[in-house]
Amino acid sequence: MATTSLWHIKGNLGDLIAYVENPEKTIPKGTEDFFNVFSYIQNPQKTADGSFVTAINCLKQTALRQMILTKQRYGKEDKYIAWHGYQSFKPGEVTPEQCHEIGVKLAREMWGDRFQVIVTTHLDKGHLHNHFCFNSVSFKAERQAHPL
Description:
Structural class: alpha+beta
Helix content: 25-40%
Number of helices: 4
Radius of gyration: 15 Å
């Protein structure tokens, strides 16, 4: 049986944009969690060099920038920046391919009709697990409610 959890990420979107546009700068105070989540969930050493990374409603190479642009488009650059969640399986319960397929299917069913999502499967622990990072702002103007 899989275990799943979600939590929000706070910060200042203006600081995020400044960082994204100039990666030479240090991470602005208050935005570390957002960048850490993106770096952590897409870590090539945990995802078989990105083989187990799937983007929904965005491109995995530019997902962070696309999420920021969605926030700007709807004037929702404050409060929660994104949601980060996980789905964990018991050792031997699923193969890496099955784990990733289940995670992508869950993300598509839960958030795929209105949010930009990155789904990654981590292979580096004794148990396989998925991470979900999705925009706190929907790309559909009429659907700006809570993502759950």
